[in-house]
Amino acid sequence: MDRRSFINSSGLLALSLPAAKLLDRVPARIKNYGIQLYMVRDEMEKDAPGTLAKLGKMGYTEIESYGGNKGIFWGMPNTDFKKLAADNGLTLISSHYNDSDMAFEKQVALAAQIGMKYLICPWKGPQKSIDDFKRIADEFNIKGEICKKHGLRYGYHPHDYPYKKIDGQLPIDVLLENTDKDLVYYQMDFYYTVTEGQNPQHYLTKYKDRFTLCHMRDVLKHRLLAGSKDESACDLGQGIINYPHLLNIARKNGMAHFFVEQSRYFHETPLQSAAINARYMKNLRLV
């Protein structure tokens, strides 16, 4: 199914039902929503304490870090970074890791020491064959064992390439089928799933309790329908992804952590975008 057909046929995208009606149907909410710090990386580089204070005041309660220039703890001891986050009402749930930062098991040990829940592989890149993805699945199982030994969960964040067929198969399907459900978890990026013409609800329900985290941004209708190679992301509630429905389905199927990650900005700064997205999450009603 191409992307245009998916948009026209799927009930997952809010193309016809007004947002106000969606929000009024049921009172269920997501109370603990978070933000991926890559979104505000420049601000964190300049002033991590001040940036975390601003995020806490916006209403975020969880954060996800990443392996940037200063490492997942932003140049601080792991315990100091945890305390800084907690002092601003933020819980460090997870982080994307960087293989070049330090030995993997050492990163796992540091994360487990401060009560983090997940360490997540953010990128493997397109591969030449489906067998390459099977080898990656084997690698994920091994790293999942290491994480489990330390009381941590191992995760993978698919971008667009796992939703592109190789050898007649979708790599995301191969990864899900060849990784141990008790060792490897997945972080759905709703933007990539939708822009690649796939059905998020299919994956959430077929692979119940596998997609336990997510990244959220929205996508502009006119850019998606035009078949642009360079899709335009936008702030939550300004595009066509039906988050009131999808997040409700996700929560019922094991998803527990919801991270905003906007990557493009129009007339606002990353912090202004973070505030817009926090307001959306605060007012969101699930249907």
Explain what you see.
With 287 residues, the protein is an alpha/beta fold. It has a single domain, classed as TIM Barrel. The protein contains 13 helices and ten strands. It has helices at 3-9, 19-24, 41-46, 48-58, 78-87, 104-113, 130-149, 171-178, 190-195, 200-206, 221-225, 243-252, 270-283, and strands at residues 33-36, 62-65, 91-96, 118-121, 153-156, 184-189, 211-216, 218-219, 233-234, 257-260. The strands form two sheets. An eight-stranded parallel beta barrel has the order 1-2-3-4-5-6-7-10, surrounded by five helices. A two-stranded antiparallel ribbon has the order 8-9. Helix 5 (78-87) links the parallel strand 2 (62-65) and strand 3. The two termini are 26 Å apart. The model is unreliable at 14-20 (pLDDT under 50).
Quick tags:
287 residues; alpha/beta; TIM Barrel; 8-stranded parallel barrel; two-stranded antiparallel sheet
Instruction: Give me the Rg, rounded.
Output: 18 Å
Element order: H for helix, E for strand? HHEHHEHEHEHEHEHHEEHEHEH
What is the SS-derived class?
Answer: alpha/beta
State the major sheet.
Answer: 8 strands, parallel, barrel
How many E strands?
A: 10
Q: What share of residues are in beta strands?
A: 5-15%
The CATH architecture can be named as: Alpha-Beta Barrel
CATH class: Alpha Beta
Number of helices, where a helix is a run of at least 4 consecutive DSSP H or I residues: 13
Distance between the termini: 26 Å
Spatial arrangement of strands, main beta sheet:
1-2-3-4-5-6-7-10
Q: How many distinct domains?
A: 1
